[in-house]
Specification:
alpha/beta, about 50% helix, 41 helices, elongated, five-stranded parallel sheet
Length: about 1000
Amino acid sequence: MNAIDNPSMASSLEGFIQIEAREQVFRCLIKDISKPSRTKTSTERPSELDVLNDRRHDALLVTARRGEGKTTFLTQILSAIVDQSYKTYVESVATPKSTVPELYSLGIIDPTLIESKQNIIVVIIEKIRKAVLHRRRNFVDANDEYRQVEGALRKLAQGLYLLDGIGEQLYAGKDWVDPDFVLDEGLENAAAAHDFELRFRQFISNAVSYVGCDAFVLAIDDVDTWFERGWPVLEALRKYLATSQLRIILSGDLDLYTLLVRRQQWEQMNPTFLRAEEMRSKIDGDAAIISKISRMVDSLQDQYLVKIARPENRIELRNLEYHADGVGLAFRGGNIKGSISERYFLTDVMSDVFGINAPKDVTLYRQQILRLPTRSALQLLSGASRDQGAGEGRSIALDTLRHISWTAVTSLGLEVSDTRNPNPNALIPSLTHWLTKSRLWLQLARCYPDGAEAEKNLAAMYMGAALLDVFKRSPGKMIDYWIKISLVREKLDRGDIHYRGSEAQATGDLESFISHVNATALESSVQFASRVASWEATERGREGTKQLVRGIRLSGASVPLARIRETGAAARELYGLEYDGSKNGFDREAFRALATGSSDDVDRLLSSLPPALRGFHKKLRSGNWQYGSRRGTEAAFQVYFANGIEDLAQRLSGSASRAAMLPLSRIVSGQQAESGNYSILRLLGLMADVLEIGRASNKNQLQALNELVNQCSQARSYPTPIALDGANSESYLEFDSDQDDFEEVDHLDDPTKEAYQLERSLLEWMSSNDVRSVDFGLAPVTLARVWTRFTYTFSNIRDDLKHRDSRYLGIYMHRAIIGFLHALGYELMRSANIRAPAKAASNPVRSGEVFVQLLREIYQGSPEFRDTKEFRFFDLIFSCPLWGFFVAREEYDEVDKLRRLEPNDSIFQFYIDRLSAYLGEDTAGSMFATRFNSSKPDEPPIAFDGLFFLLNTVQMQGTSEFDRTAGRALRQTTEAWRKRQPPAARATPSS
């Protein structure tokens, strides 16, 4: 094909792509050309009254959508007639070239350019006369034939009164009352008008003979675009242009032709008659014929089009997809060196413009592009060719795609100007507003053109390309897309929220949700995620719900904040026993004996605990903590056995103190009571903000990171929908228990060693991944698939959490992080068209084994994936230092028996190796270390590596399933211990 900078499609051989349609046109043009039959003279009757036996409509209809290249096609057809090359195209049909009829091009008429006072027949006559005069000026012979043409034209001119827009009415005027005028001129003029077609045919025949051809060819373009101009053309064709020596080629969209004819058929119906029949149908439906009229119009419409352009004379211009899948296409031009096959070129376009690489996706996008009108597809491909090798800068292809899709986008309610905002923060809120207003979340939120409607597919492609452009410049916006777009779509898809309808509760619909979470504001995803949690805390914003509905959701798990007020619920949830001294009570005194008990007793007691808590109490035992209350008379509960998240964070040193607070937000109920919410989404939102700092040109990034971490580690309150109305406040009974060790503490970090350690590691993380300049941009549909997989994984993880086995906050965070990272890695490998291990297709619910297999393939397998943009983004997210505070280090941290591949050990080793690469082994090995401080001077700080064991002492509130046998082993162990004590020491367990 020709260079694609010039938007015309052509074959690689001769500069034309519609070869099949061209051959079909010429086959029709040369078929059955014959002179009009001579009238037989007879003394019995006048020849003017004979029927025209050879009257036939042979017009060709070249049909295609707007922008499919119909005008270009007609130009090529007529050019081939002018230079006689058409004879080569039809040799196979007409055998010897000498037998191919001689065609003469009269050019193209565009009815939309004809003035209202002009008539199409006069325009045609004028074109034929130009051909005749040109012959006369250049060839002086055949004077007799020229006089025949002039004579036929003069006779034809007498009947021009008949045509619309010419002269006065045929039988109008005062002359028609004069008998002499009627006999001498009137009847002669009337005969000329009534015999107009016969005279027109004779004029054509004489002109063809004089010019030296077999037939004239005239193209009439865009008949279908303007009704007032198009309908007279069709009527002229039906009435007069029925001779094989004048070949007419119409062009247009058959659907528009149908509409044009249908409209005229309905206009022929008298409005008064239609209204009468409609009224009659309301009174007596059986007697009315209004229902039959529509069928009659259908029949008239079809038959009219069949007469004007017979089905065998209709030529459809195929789109690029048809030709690409047939003879094949190649491209050259722009910044392309030489030529390149269509498939290779489009594969590059998909990757550069849309971020698509997987074969299935490339095939879909290829189909959508090649199914565009040819003009639009070529403009897009031309822009893409100029982008290649042009370096950085604004994408020409994106700008072209914007204009191509302008109508489709605006028709769906999105202002195109909203997508061109140079501020990358503005696009996602604009997209949210549009998707909500137009109710297109399910269809278009993924920006994937897999629908049945072409307009929506085109809008999806444009929005996907626009988002990708933003992601290339601001990688943190990909995380915003997860939280602000993908999360909402998944909630709609699962029925958690719904569009507003007559059956919907006013506060349970999408519009109320979007308003509550402030989704259209330029706000951090950290705040968005927290507002989602406050919405879900009242059962998806159910109207009138004042109390918080605690539970475990993707938006977070309900946790106590500071003081443990519901000690009974906490003891049952964490230890499977009652807090009081009942038969099934929790004997905390047995733990006080750890400091002085035998090693056997200690081992038996610790082994009766689940692994999630065993590690914590081992640490307390190694530090000789006494488990006593401040008064020292009995065992305490808070600090040693359970913790509120804020009190826990206050007792920690180093970066872990702030890291523990990052996932936390406060939810305010309609009774003004506050509860904690602990969410991985806040970690992701923080990561998005960190990446934005890394992308910015701000020189003092360390200070910006410090301000961000400090801001996010300060628990902010987020009201539920009803709390915004200012309901009555709720107060809890504050009490001071002898068994409480609750006391506010403030442990300052050593500024010379630990200050800004988290911020510095984040800075090193971004620097090592070259966040400021590297392109991490991925297609929105790829990100959407990651989120869908993670959403399903999370649901399974949540449902699989078992009381006193795995339902602990530390395990919950660990498994949620592993589930997210696995979803990310697996879907990015698929996106990059890299085959992932078959077993890695499963999701890590109870064990991270499948993630270990995936990590081995990513970091130790074939290097093909490590050369992709998808790997760069996965490696960026996987190596973030935030994860190290929350993931388990060893198998025995989570389970009693080793699992295959020892996933916890293996995953952490992969992780720590990546951190060591940019932090160094010493820093990577120590940055997650923290000291857990007691308020008692005789209990030294205890060192923990990360937050895993510490978070397991924070109750997850609102869980419904409770295994009453879960604490049996612990109770039996403490009872056996107490029986071994001297009688004097067998006191009743603390209550």
